[in-house]
């Protein structure tokens, strides 16, 4: 009978012990557990996207890709105002019953907003299209309303799922969204749908997210909808009034600051430059996007839980998390930026060569954005007005930067560099504001 050597036995024992300790560590730390589950799903989603994007870029030329980027930018701005930010109150509501009412409130506001938007697009669609560079949608402006409805429904239901910490459901939904959207774009592109191929594919992906979460969540709150207490609904809307009064304008201005490059580049240059910029930005954040969404969601859930308990662990958690995020992201992003000019024409096709060059000025901004936005919780700490003031200043500076670029007829590369430096400076300021807000909460 063969016996194991003492060295081999000790090695197996050590590996087994290490595995048990690692498993216990993740089980005991809700944040790590959440990041592990969400991160694995995000990684799968990003890998699938990375595989399919080179196919998409060979079907759609940069100018068509640029029109899709304009459509997405419009949706990103509208998504932050569609529910008046009440979907975030679902996370921090004191009881599950209050959370159900706030979810219903978000759905009601979304329905009203979507109806008003549809009327505006029917009446003034052509006029708005000339201003915001989406004339390629004429006369099907209603696609904006459909995309907004599907995307907003998903965000509302995701807040409920995060509250219950059902990370596995969110993970499965994210993978389904990515696959549905990308495959739809490829199929529609093969049949020469042009800009509509990208837009309809985006809508199908967002709708898949809503349907996946809705069939699990909506039946559970059906009783609350049928027995709605209007007085309680109004009371909760007033109780969380800081979200529409401060978080809404802050998030709206934040979205404008992030989407300004798309509209200005379309106005200053053409859709081709927009397409190159859109691809370069999406690829530049790829090294960190494997974990960014999972960190945002898991950190928000864990921080909300600590805040409800009035725990003094919030500041140590914030400082430790931001430090780890910087150490993780900086090498990945900088290395990616250096090799992008060589790899872009090989992976995405010769038409996308200049997109690899745009990654260089964006790298600094991407690191700052990843570290700060993953952990920014000014709204949660009750300092919504700080976030609003910060967003106003950032947007004004970004507008000034693009105005200078337009005034001096600067090249696309220099224009993007100016934008990147302004954003990096403002994210540094946001980091300082979060520390001050947490310290103030702890004193109270």
In short:
With about 450 residues, this protein is an all-alpha fold. It has helices spanning about 5-30, 30-60, 60-80, 90, 95-130, 140-165, 165-190, 195-215, 220-225, 230-240, 240-270, 270-285, 285-310, 315-350, 355-375, 380, 385-405, 410-444.
Describe this structure in words.
This protein is mostly helical. It folds into two domains: 60-240, no CATH class; 243-444, no CATH class. Helices cover 85% and strands 0% of the residues. The chain contains 18 helices and no strands. The protein has helices at residues 6-28, 30-59, 62-79, 89-92, 96-132, 142-163, 167-190, 195-217, 222-226, 230-239, 242-268, 271-284, 286-308, 314-348, 353-373, 378-381, 384-407, 412-443. Helix 3 packs across helix 6, helix 7 runs antiparallel to helix 8 (195-217) and helix 15 (353-373) packs parallel to helix 18 (412-443). The protein is globular.
How many strands, which pairing sense, and closed or not: the largest β-sheet? none
**Proportion of beta-strand residues:** under 5%
- SSE run: HHHHHHHHHHHHHHHHHH
Mean pLDDT: 86
- Percent of residues in helices comes to over 70%
N- to C-terminal separation? 69 Å
The unreliable regions are 18-23
Counting DSSP E segments of at least 2 residues, the number of strands comes to 0
Identify the overall geometry: globular
Structural class: mainly alpha
Number of helices: 18
Radius of gyration: 23 Å
Observed structural traits:
444 residues, mainly alpha, globular
Protein topology:
Elements: H1 6-28, H2 30-59, H3 62-79, H4 89-92, H5 96-132, H6 142-163, H7 167-190, H8 195-217, H9 222-226, H10 230-239, H11 242-268, H12 271-284, H13 286-308, H14 314-348, H15 353-373, H16 378-381, H17 384-407, H18 412-443
């Amino acid at each position: 009978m063969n016996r194991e050597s003492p060295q081999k036995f000790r090695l197996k024992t050590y590996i087994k012990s290490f595995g048990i300790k690692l498993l216990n560590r993740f089980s005991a730390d809700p944040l790590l557990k959440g990041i592990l589950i969400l991160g694995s799903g995000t990684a799968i989603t990003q890998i699938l996207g990375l595989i399919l994007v080179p196919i998409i870029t060979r079907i759609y030329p940069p100018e068509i890709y640029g029109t899709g980027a304009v459509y997405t930018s419009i949706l990103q701005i509208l998504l932050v105002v569609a529910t008046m930010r009440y979907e975030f109150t679902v996370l921090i509501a004191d009881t599950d019953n209050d959370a159900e009412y706030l979810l219903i409130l978000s759905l009601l506001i979304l329905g009203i907003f979507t109806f008003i938007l549809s009327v505006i697009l029917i009446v003034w669609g052509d006029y708005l299209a000339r201003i915001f560079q989406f004339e390629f949608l004429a006369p099907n402006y209603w696609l904006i309303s459909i995309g907004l409805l599907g995307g907003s429904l998903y965000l509302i239901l995701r807040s409920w799922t995060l509250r219950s910490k059902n990370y596995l459901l969110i993970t499965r939904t994210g993978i389904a969204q990515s696959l549905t959207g990308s495959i739809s774009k490829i199929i529609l592109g093969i049949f020469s749908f042009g800009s509509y191929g990208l837009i309809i594919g985006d809508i199908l992906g967002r709708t898949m997210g809503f349907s996946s979460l809705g069939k699990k969540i909506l039946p559970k709150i059906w009783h609350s909808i049928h027995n709605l207490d209007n007085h309680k609904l109004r009371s909760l809307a007033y109780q969380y009034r800081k979200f529409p009064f401060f978080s809404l304008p802050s998030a709206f201005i934040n979205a404008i600051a992030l989407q300004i490059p798309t509209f200005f580049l379309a106005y200053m240059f053409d859709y081709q430059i927009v397409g190159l910029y859109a691809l370069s930005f999406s690829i530049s954040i790829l090294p960190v996007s494997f974990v960014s969404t999972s960190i945002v969601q898991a950190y928000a859930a864990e921080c909300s839980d600590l805040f409800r308990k009035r725990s003094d662990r919030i500041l140590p958690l914030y400082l430790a998390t931001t430090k780890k995020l910087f150490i993780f992201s900086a090498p990945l992003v900088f290395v990616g930026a250096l090799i992008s000019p060589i790899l872009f024409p090989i992976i995405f096709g010769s038409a996308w060569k200049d997109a690899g060059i745009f990654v260089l000025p964006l790298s600094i901004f991407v690191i700052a954005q990843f570290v700060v936005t993953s952990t920014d919780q000014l709204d949660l700490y009750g300092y919504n007005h700080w976030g609003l003031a910060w967003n106003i200043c950032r947007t004004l500076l970004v507008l000034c930067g693009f105005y200078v670029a337009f005034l001096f007829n600067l090249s696309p590369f220099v224009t993007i560099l100016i934008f990147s430096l302004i954003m990096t400076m403002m994210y540094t300021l946001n980091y300082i504001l979060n520390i001050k807000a947490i310290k103030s909460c702890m004193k109270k």
